[in-house]
Amino acid sequence: MKRFAFLVLVAAIFIGCSDRDDNLDGVNIRIKNESSVTFDLVQVGSEAMLHENIGADEYSGYLEYETAYQYAYINIKVGEENYILQPIDFVGETPLENGFYTYALNISEAGDVILNFRVD
């Protein structure tokens, strides 16, 4: 009887578990600030997709995108300064599958945006 109860418990745990990306309708992207300054505003793609107040070595919340790629137009605002990563095009690129991703961002000494793409 104990074995049967144990098997039922194990089966219930496995049936109840699901990945957080099951049944997603979009691509969820967050920002990780890998720099030593606070990002006041980070625009990823369109003007409507804004991540705000991301401290050094911190993460933003996820925003849901209909379509996204491993890289994107990124505008980082720090005080009065803007740092921009401007892709030329997405020809030949495959859109990301529905799921969770992180754009880890840093700013080089020359003022260039450095993007490290990660699957969460």
Low-confidence stretches: 4-10
Largest sheet: spatial strand order: 4-1-7-8
Task: Kindly state the number of beta strands.
Answer: 8
How many H/I helices? 1
Please describe the topology of this protein:
Layout: H1 2-16, E1 27-33, E2 39-44, E3 50-54, E4 63-65, E5 74-78, E6 81-85, E7 99-107, E8 113-119
Parallel strand pairs: 1-7
Antiparallel strand pairs: 1-4, 2-3, 2-5, 5-6, 7-8
Protein name: DUF4625 domain-containing protein
Protein architecture, described:
The protein is mainly β and 120 residues long. The protein has a single domain (25-119), classed as Domain of unknown function DUF5300 (Immunoglobulin-like, Sandwich). The chain is 12% helix and 39% strand. It contains one helix and eight strands. The chain has one helix spanning 2-16, and strands spanning 27-33, 39-44, 50-54, 63-65, 74-78, 81-85, 99-107, 113-119. A four-stranded mixed β-sheet has the order 4-1-7-8, with no helix packed on it. Strands 3-2-5-6 form a four-stranded antiparallel β-sheet, with no helix packed on it. A hairpin with a 2-residue loop joins strand 5 and strand 6. The chain is globular and about 35 Å long. The N and C termini lie far apart (41 Å). 17% of the residues are buried. The model is unreliable at 4-10 (pLDDT under 50).
